[in-house]
Amino acid sequence: MLTERTLADAEVAALGECLDEAAMACQPVEMFTERHPGMQLGDAYAIQACLRQRMESRGTRVTGLKMGLTSRAKMQQVGVAESIHGFITDRAAYGDGATIPVNRFIHPRIEAEIAVVMARSLGGANCTALEAGEAVDFVLPAIEIIDSRYADFRFDLLSVVSDNTSAAGYVLGGHSRSLGSIDVVTEGVVLTCNGEVKETGAGAAVLGNPLEAVALLARQRAALGEDIPAGSLVLTGGITAALPVKAGDVVTVHYQTLGTIRLRFS
Ligand code: OOG
Ligand code: MG
Questions:
Q1: Ligand 1 pocket residue status of 209, Cβ below 6 Å
Q2: Which of 64, 69, 91, 144 could disulfide-pair with 232, CB 3.0 to 4.6 Å?
Q3: How far is the CA of 231 from the centre of ligand 1 (A)?
Q4: Contact indicator for 121, 135 with CB cutoff of 8 Å
Q5: Fold category of 61-265 in CATH
Q6: For the chain, which residues make up each domain, given as ranges?
Q7: Three-class SS state of 143
Q8: In what order do the strands lie in the sheet with 188-193?
């Protein structure tokens, strides 16, 4: 249940503050679920909402939403087998071809993702992939930069939801395409680092169809009394395992029809 809660508001606020400060200081914190054994998924989403309020109060604008742990490769990599969602912001957006200092993060990893922009709002407890497709304006290739605020990138379901699903940055690039002109299920992706192929996959890795991830996002938002607003950018989740990056790395993600995104880390 996404709304079930046991923590007091003051505890939720304190945990939100702890994660917010960890991200700003680039200092990892210990996972806190052991200290709150009765904590529920609703508490974790409440801590995430608190983080969002703190960022918005500093002038950060939410640009969209992201799904996480929507592919088997991702679930196996972090040992959490449930799809989750978080939010993304204007301060975390980088341009294609950017050079990004790794010292802005604790232990960054990159992910190849298919992104969509919503033409209209989408909601509903029974939202389907078909309805999701009808609400999509266009499709874009994306790289997400994730950076867990927990030591050693180790967490459980409630910790990672609280930590805004490790969201830390994103890059859009390539070409935008209408849904009718691309098959997001068979869209292939090749991720390279320093000229070496590191990961390969296809859109189908994401819940069988990235539009299933958009529909699941709508259902999860509905459970929280929210929708996916019109105009939102939605990252549908990493297709392959995430790749850790270090200073000096040059990474590219080639999409079969959506084009290529390049990044350098310094
Ligand atoms: C959680 C975030 C997962 C994705 O695309 O699966 C995520 C993590 O792996 O740290 O963004
Ligand atoms: Mg991701």
A1: no
A2: 64
A3: 23
A4: yes
A5: Fumarylacetoacetate hydrolase; domain 2 (3.90.850)
A6: 61-265
A7: strand
A8: 99-100, 259-265, 250-255, 188-193, 196-202
